[in-house]
Amino acid sequence: MLVSVTGFGSVWRQRLESDLGRRGLFKPAVYYNTTGVMVKSGVRQRPQICGYARFEAVGGFNPNHPAKIIGRVFECAEPSVWMGYNKLLFRRLIAGDVCPEYYLVLHSGFVTHNQLFEFLRLDYSASSRSAFNNRVHRLVKHGLLIRQEMPFVNREVVYSVSHASASELVGRGEHYVQPAGKQRSNSAQSALHHSLELNEIHLALKHSGTLVYWMPETEIRSRNDLTTNGYWKYYDAIVTVRLGGQDCKFALEYERTPKAARHYLAIRERIEQEISIAHFLYLVPNHDLLWFVANKLSGCKRTIYFGLFRDFLQQTLALSVRRSGSPVSVDLDSILTQRKMVQQTGGLFPGIAV
What pLDDT, on the 0 to 100 scale, is given for residue 252? Predict the structure, then answer.
């Protein structure tokens, strides 16, 4: 969800950054804004009809010059209610003067013409297909998007962003780190299919109405490589969904093809060290690959769940999944909400003490 900042309330609170560990425990600076009323000689928070806006230093907010973001647009989590208070998380500042098509393609890697329009329809309420076609045509004409004819992808056109264009977006503030090394042609084809099918997973969650935030691999790489507020692995996505009034987060991996056995040992070790994520989901295209991957990760000390890609597109969070070594199937939504209690006291935002 995109939100434009038009002004601020009169009450600010802060939680300064602290580094308590190498991964997951680093807490970047956070700032809270709300409205207030005059009480005697000071301004106090409203006791009723109260709401909070949360800004993070790592998301592009500068507490020394807050007025500079008035009129700017942020990518935000969906609004929610905590103990009767409205809350809105401003995740990151969107680069100015950038067509939404531009950075949607950047963070998708590859995207088909129809997928791109569907993202715009769901995120920006785009309705005119002809206006969309014209904008994309101009982006291709000016070399900002690369257009590829892919007859094996349902005869659809596929778009990607050139290295020069990606560099320009980074200069405008986008969180993006290019994977190291050049891919071979066969690897590039595999990456293309992987990206397109990962887009289908992303769109299925959007259609379900449960998706709060999808952190793409590009943003995960940026955090892992450039900050101490990262994760132990380059996941395909970190997904936050809302179930029963609760925000539930899980790491998502789409394993389209098998890896060499040595890679799964390293993956196991990284997942075991992950302390900022409680749930891990692997989606695969068929039963044989599901058995193979589950077997390779069977010795992991953390619980990993496995499900089928096509079933997820139909059922999303109601998907039946299995954990390695167990023949019992359980619904994904019940796993995500287990042991989670509706918060009555403590921090206003998950994991954050106000």
Answer: 98
